[in-house]
Design brief:
By secondary structure, the protein is mainly alpha-helical. Helices cover 70% and strands 0% of the residues. It has two domains: 2-45; 61-141, no CATH class. It has six helices and no strands. It is elongated. The model is unreliable at 41-47 (pLDDT under 50).
Length: 143
């Protein structure tokens, strides 16, 4: 079985070499290193009929990581739905503050840092790159 996997890996490397020589070189180096360590093909040869076809990743058993994933999805949806009404500065501040809270940034630093970063990003896009961003509720004070 191992020689068959080696032949498959060699043919895949040859096919990749025609498409992208740099990627093929990386695959060849990685395969060689794994073969030297005795791990080449171990994930394919250890699959049995009783093993699961798919399994949850390790982080799914951690409540903190699951909450982080949920917050990430939620703030992305909030941003998409609210950026036109609330504006970039308000929505960006909420977005960054939520992510910083999940990443356990000190609470006293979350809002000032999120606001400062949002204003810096807004300045870079609006003034330097001349990309218009939505003002939303801050339209009366737009510069």
């Amino acid at each position: 079985m191992s020689s068959r996997l080696t032949k498959i890996a060699a043919s895949m490397t040859a096919a990749l070499a025609r498409l992208n020589p740099g990627h093929a070189a990386c695959v060849a180096i990685r395969t060689t290193r794994q073969r030297k360590r005795g791990r080449c093909g171990s994930s394919l040869t250890s699959v049995t009929a009783s093993s699961a076809w798919a399994s949850a990743p390790e982080w799914a058993s951690s409540p903190r990581h699951v909450a982080g994933f949920v917050v990430l999805v939620a703030v992305n949806l909030l941003y998409l739905l609210a950026v036109d009404r609330l504006g970039f500065v308000v929505t960006g501040t909420i977005y960054l503050a939520a992510l910083m809270a999940v990443l356990r940034v000190k609470p006293a630093r979350v809002v000032p840092l999120a606001l400062l970063l949002t204003l810096a990003i807004h300045f870079c896009f609006y003034k330097l790159l001349r990309v218009p961003l939505p003002w939303g509720v801050l339209q009366p004070v737009a510069w």
